[in-house]
Structure formats: structure tokens, C-alpha cells
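Run log // design_07
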């Protein structure tokens, strides 16, 4: 039995295919068409999933969509009518796309797929809940979902047992922790639904100066439920702005222009806003723990990508274990819909546990070499993996920035050792070097560590043997280790850790182990293999193009090492660009 899940028409379109209860493939459309956060129909992602299974759409038994368009449309209509006439322009801008595409999502999907098979609709937050619980491996678990908004629901909690899930409480639009965080993102001059993690990255540099003013914006109850003071928000009547002039008056400044300077004021706003979001999530998790008495917690929705809040929920709420799947945002709705249909609707037993994120395309060695030969690049093939890993570890120890392209592409926004840029975390200048040579982005942005799972507790304040495979938890770096790994130690002494096992990513694990044998440090700096404004690379051609157009020193792709290229990227120019972005002299 094949079940295809699809998410699209808001942001981060994706597809996932389940065969007899096992995940076959899952990917975001942006990785194929190279348009970041692409939201329209994921035609290429669907094609990839079908190709990976070796089937056509005619062999798919069930097709599911990750929300209910009619219910969502009713919310939009009610919101427009309630705010009329100042919602006039929202009506003008939103109705054409709804009438042409979104309202007839089922027919549109059938047309795109070339099929007359029925389309099954899953509630948005139920798809989120399923995307975490049904693949968690927990027999029973509490579940929290939080994002901007689905149909009406913005936040919910419930329980999962076996193949059944029950949503017990929900918070409805317009009150939304996700939209609150988006308003903070927009106020700081960053792109909504794209740069929320910049707020998280900036927050440790600030102070909680504005926490009390944020309490004017949101009323948080002891159980984590909340209500936004809507007089400060504009998203109910505007498609262009998240907040209004009252918000700016409350905080004492107009919104930062995208090209404006980043000052201590903005750092304090980021810090204070992040603390408020953490408070909501920790209070909610604590209440849910007390209500359910369960040991396990599953978290999903875009707020599930707030790894600082995730760590605090685990540490402070009472739960013993937490699971967040790597594509916690909307693209993961495709995954949730597929498993919801297979397990909860069709009552098939759960047999799949999501232990890794490598569900995208992979490429054979001959495909990699053909791509390299087409560019006339000089490369060295290694027929022994041991030799390949020894060479790569030496390059890292020499201070090289290594592009690492191996195996199947990651599902979700994090690079987890398949499409990664790697470097030596011991180098105190490495964060600055990568931001200047490769990412061309603000210098405050942190980088993450990938560490051997059995050694993680030696470097981070986390239990021995703890799993953190998806880079969605942020423990503190042990004080006695911070000087050893300064490039991955954030301003507040934390690190967004990924634990790596040989079972789930053998070659990446063995590389880190080889680097540890060479240097004594069993971890590497890991960031996504892409440049600012582009999705993570997918194909060998994407990897080669990014390598040639950045200051990456070495490309390790399959069994081949490319260490020379025509021309060079001006490191000094990259550094000036990074500094200028931070100072506000350049636009995003």
C-alpha cells in the first residue's frame, strides 16, 4: 500500500511517500526548483518520491493533503468581514489566489498529478501532531503543536496512544505564538517565515530589557494559554504588516529597516521576545505534563524549530523524553498526513520510527564523477573510504572549510551531515571565516556542532547516551570545554547540538571519529551547504556551482575530493560584506 502526503499553498511545500507503513522518501520542493520557501504545488518533490519508489501515480492508493481548505477559507472570510472596511486590500489580494487555486485544492492536485483519485484532507494541526507522534517510537505521548495558524487552530495539546491521537485543548486565531514571533521577526527587519532563527541567533547578545513591555502585548496564563493584545497587531487586516504603530510606540522605535543598523536595542528586543516565547512553551509543557502524567512529549509545528524553547521544555516541564521530527514546519505536514492516513485512518499498526532525516535524493559515484568531469575540474578519487576520511580530517585540522556532499539529502531545514559545510570548531576565527567566505551573512549568526553521540555528554550538559539527531536542542557547552570549541559555543554558552551515530550516518560518523583521533576533539562545526538566500544544495551540480562561487576551500563529494578551482573568491570582500550587513550598509 502506498500513501502520498502533500503540503503546499502557504510556505515550504513538500511531499512524502509511505509504503506499507515505512517512509520511502520525503523532500521539500525548494531543493529541486532552487526557489527558497517555495509554496506552490510540489511537482518535483512528488516526482522524486514516486521515482524513489519506482512507481507511477496510478500505483498510489491514497493521496492526502495537510489541511482543510474550506475551513481555512471560512476563517479568512470571517476575519475579513469582521475587520471591514480596513480589510479591503486583504480581500483584493487574497481572493484571486483562493478562487483560482486554494479553494479548489483537491481538483488542482488531481490536475497536477494527472489522476482522478480522491484527495483526503487532514486538519492542519492534526497533520503536525501525526508528523511527530506517529513516527516517534513512543507507544504513548503528550503532544504539543504550535505555529502561525492552520485552519483556525494556532496552538494545541493532546495525547497519542498507539495509532490514536486526541486533541484536548486548542488556542485559535488570532491568538498565536507563531505569529507573535513572526511580528518580532518583522519588527527587527528580518523576513517573516524565513529568518525567525535570526531572532534566536541574535537573542543571546541582548538583555531582557523589554520583557515587561511584551507582557502588554501578550497575556500568559499559568497553564501556558495566552491571549494577544490585538491592538498592537495588524495581521488580521493587512497582508503587508504584522504589527502597527501602537507596537512601535510601545517599544519606542519604528521597525528596523532591512538595511538599517543592528544596535543593542534590537539585541534586547530579540532577547526579550525569545524569553516570552520560551515562557509560553515551558508553562504549557509543564501544564500538559501535570494533566497527562506522561513521560514523553512530542512537539510539532513551526515553533518546534525553536530549539532553545525545546531544550527548556525538556529540562523544566517534567517530561523525561522529547521528540521533534526534523521538518517540524509546514513541509512536515506532508509526512504527518501520509502517516495519519496509514496509521490512524486505515488502522494499520505503527512500524516506522524516524531515527534520521536522510529521505531526499542520493547519487551514485558514477553520477558524481560525471558531474565533475562535465566541469573539467581537477579532482582526486579515493577508492578507500579510510583514505578519503583521513584526507578530509587532515584538511579540516589544517583550517580548511570543507563542503561535504554524501548520501541522501536531509528532510527539513537543518544540514545534518549529508549536505553540510564542515570546519574545525577549535579555531576561534572559524565562525567569522565561514560567514565571510561562504555565507556572506551577519556575523552574529551561530554555527552548530556535530558530535559523536557517545562523547556528547563530555562537551555538553546533557545526559550520557542522549539522542539529539536533528539539531533541535540547545544544551550548554560545558564550561571547561568552551575554550576548546569556541567556534560552536554561542554567546550564551550554548550549542545547537547534533548527535551522530554510525548506524544512521556511517560515513559522517567515521569522519568525525577520524577527526577526533587526529585532534582529540570528537566534533566538527556543521552548517548548511548553501549560500544566503538559496536552499541547501540537492544535486552534484548544485554542489559544484556553490563550491565554485564561494570561498569554500575543498569539496568532498562522494569518494572524490576537489581542492582547486579556477579563480578565487575574495575573502576580504566577503568579510567587508559580512560587516556591512551587520552594520546595515547593505540590504538583506
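design_07 sequence
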Amino acid at each position: 500500500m502506498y500513501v502520498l502526503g502533500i503540503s503546499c499553498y502557504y510556505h515550504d511545500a513538500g511531499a512524502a511517500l509511505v509504503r506499507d507503513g515505512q517512509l520511502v522518501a520525503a523532500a521539500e520542493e525548494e531543493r529541486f526548483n532552487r526557489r527558497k520557501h517555495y509554496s506552490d504545488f510540489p511537482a518535483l518533490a512528488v516526482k522524486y518520491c514516486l521515482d524513489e519508489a519506482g512507481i507511477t501515480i496510478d500505483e498510489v492508493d491514497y493521496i492526502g493533503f495537510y489541511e482543510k481548505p474550506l475551513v481555512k477559507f471560512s476563517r479568512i472570510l470571517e476575519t475579513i468581514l469582521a475587520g471591514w472596511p480596513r480589510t479591503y486590500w486583504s480581500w483584493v489580494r487574497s481572493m484571486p489566489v483562493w478562487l483560482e487555486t486554494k479553494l479548489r485544492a483537491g481538483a488542482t492536485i488531481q490536475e497536477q498529478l494527472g489522476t482522478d483519485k480522491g484527495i483526503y484532507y487532514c486538519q492542519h494541526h492534526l497533520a503536525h501532531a501525526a508528523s511527530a507522534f506517529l513516527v516517534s517510537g513512543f507507544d504513548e505521548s503528550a503532544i504539543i503543536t504550535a505555529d502561525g495558524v492552520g485552519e483556525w487552530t494556532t496552538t494545541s495539546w493532546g495525547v497519542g496512544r498507539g495509532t490514536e491521537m486526541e486533541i484536548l485543548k486548542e488556542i485559535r486565531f488570532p491568538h498565536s505564538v507563531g505569529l507573535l514571533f513572526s511580528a518580532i521577526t518583522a519588527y527587527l527587519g528580518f523576513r517573516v517565515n524565513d529568518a525567525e532563527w535570526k531572532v534566536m541567533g541574535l537573542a543571546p547578545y541582548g538583555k531582557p530589557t523589554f520583557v515587561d513591555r511584551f507582557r502588554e502585548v501578550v497575556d500568559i496564563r499559568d497553564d501556558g494559554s495566552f491571549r494577544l493584545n490585538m491592538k498592537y497587531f495588524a495581521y488580521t487586516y493587512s497582508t503587508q504588516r504584522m504589527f502597527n504603530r501602537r507596537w512601535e510606540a510601545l517599544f519606542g522605535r519604528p521597525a528596523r529597516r532591512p538595511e538599517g543598523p543592528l544596535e543593542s536595542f534590537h539585541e534586547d528586543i530579540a532577547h526579550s521576545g525569545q524569553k516570552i516565547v520560551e515562557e509560553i512553551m515551558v508553562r504549557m509543557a509543564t501544564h500538559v505534563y501535570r494533566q497527562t502524567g506522561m513521560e514523553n512529549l512530542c512537539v510539532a509545528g513551526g515553533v518546534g524549530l525553536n530549539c532553545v524553547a525545546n531544550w527548556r521544555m525538556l529540562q523544566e516541564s517534567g517530561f523525561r523524553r522529547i521528540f521533534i521530527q526534523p521538518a517540524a514546519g509546514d513541509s512536515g505536514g506532508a509526512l504527518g498526513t501520509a502517516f495519519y492516513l496509514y496509521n490512524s485512518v486505515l488502522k494499520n499498526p505503527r512500524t516506522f520510527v524516524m531515527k534520521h532525516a536522510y529521505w531526499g535524493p542520493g547519487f551514485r559515484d558514477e553520477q558524481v564523477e560525471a558531474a565533475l568531469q562535465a566541469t573539467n575540474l581537477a579532482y582526486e578519487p579515493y577508492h578507500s573510504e579510510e583514505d578519503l576520511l583521513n584526507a578530509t580530517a587532515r584538511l579540516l585540522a589544517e583550517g580548511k572549510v570543507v563542503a561535504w556532499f554524501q548520501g541522501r539529502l536531509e528532510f527539513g531545514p537543518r544540514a545534518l551531515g549529508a549536505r553540510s559545510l564542515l570546519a574545525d570548531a577549535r579555531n576561534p576565527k572559524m565562525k567569522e571565516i565561514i560567514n565571510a567566505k561562504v555565507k556572506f551573512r551577519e556575523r552574529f549568526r551561530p554555527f552548530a556542532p556535530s558530535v559523536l553521540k557517545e562523547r556528547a555528554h563530555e562537551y555538553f550538559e546533557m545526559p550520557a547516551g542522549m539522542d539529539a539527531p536533528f539539531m533541535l536542542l540547545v544544551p550548554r557547552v560545558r564550561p571547561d570545554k568552551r575554550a576548546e570549541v569556541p567556534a560552536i559555543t554561542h554567546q550564551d554558552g550554548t550549542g545547537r547540538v547534533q548527535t551522530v551515530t554510525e548506524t544512521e550516518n556511517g560515513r559522517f560518523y567515521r569522519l568525525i571519529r577520524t577527526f577526533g583521533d587526529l585532534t582529540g576533539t570528537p566534533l566538527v562545526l556543521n552548517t548548511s551547504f548553501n549560500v544566503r538566500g538559496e536552499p541547501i544544495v540537492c544535486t552534484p551540480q548544485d554542489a559544484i556551482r556553490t563550491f565554485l562561487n564561494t570561498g569554500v576551500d575543498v569539496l568532498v563529494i562522494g569518494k572524490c575530493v576537489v581542492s582547486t578551482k579556477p579563480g578565487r573568491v575574495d575573502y576580504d570582500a566577503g568579510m567587508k560584506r559580512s560587516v556591512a550587513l551587520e552594520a546595515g550598509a547593505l540590504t538583506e
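The radius of gyration is 23 Å.
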